[in-house]
Amino acid sequence: MSFGSLIILLTLDFRDPFCCKVVHPSPSLYSLLKFPGHERSLTQIKFNAEGDLLFSCSKDHVINVWYSHNGERLGTYDGNNGTVWTVDIDSESRFLVSGSADNTLRLWSVASGKCLYTWEFPTAVKRVAFNEDDTKVVCITEQRMGYQCAIRVFDINREGDGSDQSEEPEFFFNPIGSKATVCAFTLIPNIIITGHESGKVALFNVKTGEEIDNNERAHSDVVTDLQLSKDRTYCVTSSKDKIARIHDTKNLMVIKTYTTETPLNSAALAPTRPYVLLGGGQEAMNVTTTSMRQGKFETRFWHKVYEEEVGRVKGHFGPINTIAIHPAGTCYASGGEDGFVRVHHFDDSYFKAQPYGTVDIED
Amino acid sequence: MAATDDIDYSDIEEKYQVHYDDGFDNMLVVDGVPVIDKSKLEKLLAKICKEFSRKGVSIKPDDIFMPWNDTTGKSQGFIFVEFKNADDANLALVAMHNHPFDAKHQFKVNRFTDIERYERLDETYIEPETEEYAPREHLRAWLADAQGRDQYVTYRGEDVEIYWHGKPSQSEIAMKPDWKDFLYVAWSPLGTYIATLHRQGVRLWGGSSWKPQQRFAHPLVKLIDFSPCEQYLVTWSNESIVVPEGAPQGPQYLSPDDEGNNIAVWDIKSGDLLRTFSTVSENDSAAAKKQMQWPALKWSPDDKYVARVTPGQMISVHELPSMYLHGKKSIKIEGVVDFEWCPQGDRDREDAEKDALAGATGAATKTVKKARENMLVYWTPEVVNQPARVTLLGFPSRAILRQKNLFNVTECKLYWQNQGDFLCTKKSIFCNLEIFRVREKDYPVEVLELKDTVTDFSWEPKGERFAIVSSNDPNLGNPGPGITIKTDVSFYQLEHGKNDFKLLRTLPSRTSNAIRWSPRGRHVVLATVGSSSKSELEFWDLDFNVEDAGRREGQVSKEEWGSGIQLLGTADHYALTDVEWDPSGRYLATSASSWTHTLENGYAIWDFRGQEITKQIQDRFKQFIWRPRPRTLLTKEQQRLVRKNLKEYSRTFDEDDAAEESNVSAELVALRKRLVDEWNAWRMRSKAEFFGEGGPKSGRKGDGQEQEEVEVWIDEVIDYVEEEVLE
Asked: What pLDDT, in 10s, does the model give residues A6-52?
């Protein structure tokens, strides 16, 4: 138990847009809580719909759930036998799905921590996501050992205690070309948006397995994250090519581009405020051992519309693997390669500050 | 059979037709021979043969054919001469043309083959078409920039970009040329040209549209060096020159005579090759070969001479533009290791210009002060019974001006101050600095003895100060990963009263290993270069108390010694590899080149106080170079005037700045408004498409609208009392 999850509450100063590269936590609002948590690097973190719970999964096989306001751990979901790559929870905080390197997709009861159902595949599960009304789950399995990358959609039976699920997927197909790395349901039924290893972003009809639309040049390297806006009409993608982009989920048109100087692992959209949060960093193997610098492991705040960086938050001492924002936009959490989840609560100035004057920007 | 006859072979025949030599290349026609009759024939032929032989082309009377006019019985006045081969004929043509045979006769010699051609020549005169005069772009057009901005070039990946650098709003890209496949770029010393090194040779570009200006076909060129006045270019390749069969010939190309050499000297204006050299001399050992000095040829500051050293033997000085050895012999110096030309100061340049003017007008040169002769300094190491020696030599007089013996020398470095006022020689083992005051009578030498090893030495440009980096770190000399050498930086200044150099101040315990003086003096940057853990920049001002640098001489004595040294700011540029001031001394550029490492390549520009102006982190970033500026055209008087009225000038500049700032912010506000409008329009559109006019329906249950209530139980121990209950 050498590592614990370090949860810090700190303030963000957004009053001066031009010199808030370094954001100093004000000591009075600073509280530091340390709990045993993950022992290895984080892979994905998610808030529930209300934002009171934070789910985190990591390479140490455990899924944790935390109170987001104080960092107290509520419980764990045990049973996975390999790295847990991905989690998602439904809008009622009733069911949790997880995908793991032990080739399983599991359905959990959020409240009891019991594993309700397990689907097994030939290869690891890299990404899972619920649809809008929690009736379906999409999952991507890895391309390995002669098996192609596959996308499966399962119907979730919400009747009863949830342990009565059908073993067979409702839809199954292998996307042609580069393997998919991330995916999510769009607003249109049975249409998913995917990000691929080649940097492609595409729309698939899960019924037919047909690629409806694609943008081959969305990125020039692996798409590492894809998060939807609240109304699912647009999404933000991040990539190892150091760029994050906002796409229209209907026609895949690139709306905005954010060019940074470090490979990105995650990108999230802040509700209520016009910011995009980007996280990443040089991979551990590429960081020189002699350098004492911990640079590049900051969460970067970019203005969503102006495409300008407005601030950074330091903290992690390894690359940031995943970022999640509270659905109400009151705090955000980042999970790093260093095994820590950091939760940052925004203070009043974040909401009140108008660094670019009073402008009305649609969410 | 009939079918084959029909085929038209004419094209094939034409193609394979054998071209016969005319066979008359060795025939000359000599006109102007006396008209004689038969009786004098033998005598004349013998005389002609003698004349030819005297010029080195021997012929026999049998080779001469003299046509006769049969009706008059006299000769026609011309003869045909046949030579052994065409070369002899050519020689005779040159030697005998316009040769006076006797008082009345002069030979006119032509090639036999030419006679025919001349016959067919069209006699009508055609006026040659005058070429339309196309004005060339001014090569120094960038100096006429209204905002007086400087330029710099960046080389990243495969792309070269040339930028203007000024106020933030005026910093813009000047040119993005599509130059391909080259090693690197280099400015000429006055900024007129930019050179790219290609496989085939060097190209120079210039003018406001960056058109090709000149090229030098030196294949596989690796290093180049411009002469100080941009008249000549030296190129070097590690591969010896090989001239393939069928290579183009001409003054601009390497000829077979140059084979095996690897240094070439070119004239920039004409593009002509002047001469080639070999870096490898016969008695060079393998070890010496590895350590090639660059520049291998050193230019005198006025471009009149170029010299190279043959270690241990001599210095060879060549005159320009002929490239002949000056005085037809090298300066033989037993054991010579290295030498440096004395730079030309502003004073010398003015004197030289006056000299030239006086020479041109033919005025009495006595009244004009003679310009200082070129000087070079060389050193020879210790040999048996003779100490090491530094010698100051005038050139072209070759007079030894000053000689200084040194003891216990293993290595000696020569540093000239950029105005040629001072010379410092640094010898190792015991780190001594020997400073020659070159402007003074008899060239007095002062010795500074230092305990620590001096790793870097630098004169203040146009100043009387110098800075040294010294170190007593035990790790010095055995660099390893992660080892940062601790150093001290010291400043020295000439004390006018005592006429010696005195320590101004020492800054102890630094890691700085590079001194970069501003080209205007006064400001200096200390940098830690090439270290993986430290990358500090310190910006120092040495005349912080003095208002005007131009007036500082008189004030020094009043001020406390060394009190004007002030740290203006510190900065950090991670893993920097290069530090360079802009030509005006206002800005400093630092860069991290991917040629050295791949960590955070890119560049940053700082002002002289250490404030960051711009920072660009770019993958595969290779080069950053400021465009040099030529010497100012203003006279001393004009410069003084500018300095005097500085306040008035600055007022107008301030007004410009203010006007621009409001302008820029207005532009930015407009741009942001446009971006917001576009965004909002797109949001409205996409919402309408998905949800109709009614706005988004509540998607997930519990939209996060209701206030989150957090219940916290806090256990607080108010008081803790331990009571022992006694039974």
From this structure: 333 333 333 333 222 223 333 223 333 434 477 788 899 999 988 88
Predicted pLDDT at A69: 82
Report d(CA B521, CA B444) in Å as an integer.
Answer: 24
- E strands within A39-92? 42-47, 53-58, 63-67, 73-77, 84-89
Residue A49 lies in a domain: no
**B612-617 and A320-325 strand pairing:** unpaired
- Does the distance separating the beta carbons of A250 and B690 come in below 8 Å? yes
Q: Do B686 and A305 touch (CB under 8 A)?
A: no
The dihedral formed by the CA atoms of B559, B565, B568 and B572, expressed in degrees to the nearest 10: 180
Please give the single-letter amino acid code of residue A255.
I
Q: Are B28 and B111 in contact (CB under 8 A)?
A: yes
Same domain, B221 and B110: no
**Chain A residue closest in CA terms to B677:** A361
Angle CA B617–B621–B625, to nearest 5: 100
Domain assignment present for residue B394? The answer is yes
B581 falls within a domain: no
Task: Name the residue among A230, A292, A359 with its Cβ closest to that of B676.
Answer: A359
Distance, C-alpha B406 to centroid of its chain? 34
Q: Are residues B418 and B338 in the same domain?
A: yes
Cα dihedral B643, B648, B654, B659 in deg (nearest 10): -140
Phi, psi of B46 (to 5 degrees): -60, -40
CB A154 within 8 A of CB A139: yes
My answer on whether B275 and B305 are in the same domain is: no
Residues B252 and B337 both lie in one domain: no
Measured between CB atoms, which of B676, B708, B710 is closest to A305? B676
| Residue to test with chain B: of A88, A228, A231, most B Cβ within 10 A | A231
Tokens representing A50 are: 């209300």
| Token pair 């001002």: residue | B541
From the list A236, A227, A221, A141, the residue with the least C-alpha distance to A184 is A227
Residue A334 lies in a domain: yes
Domain count, chain A: 1
Measured CA to CA in angstroms, residue A139 lies from A61, A132, A184, A195, A322 at distances of 18, 15, 9, 13, 18
Contact B108, B101 (CB under 8 A): no
Decide: B83 and B68 in contact? Cβ < 8 Å: no
B676 contacts chain A (CB < 8 A): yes
DSSP label at A338?
T
**B498 at A interface, C-beta within 8 A:** no
Shortest CA distance from B669: residue in chain A:
A356
Domain with B220 in it: 179-279+292-296
Q: Quick check: helix, strand or coil at residue B54?
A: helix
d(CA A156, CA B276): 84
For chain A, which ranges sit under pLDDT 50? 1-36, 289-292, 294
**Chain B contact probe: residue of A288, A297, A300 with most B CBs at under 10 A:** A288
Q: How many domains does chain B have?
A: 3
What pTM, to 2 d.p., does this model score? Answer: 0.60
Whether A150 is in a domain gets the answer no
Q: Is the pLDDT of residue B455 over 80?
A: yes
Peptide bond into B396 cis (omega under 30): yes
Number of H helices, E strands in chain A: 1, 29
Total beta-carbon pairs less than 8 A apart between chain A and chain B? 85
**Torsion B123-B124-B129-B130 (CA) sign:** positive
Q: What 3 state SS string does B78-94 have?
A: EEEEECCCHHHHHHHHH
pLDDT in tens, A288-343: 543 445 456 888 889 888 888 888 888 787 888 999 999 988 888 888 888 888 88
Give the type of residue at B359: G
CATH number of the domain enclosing B226 = 2.20.25
In a domain, A60, yes or no: no
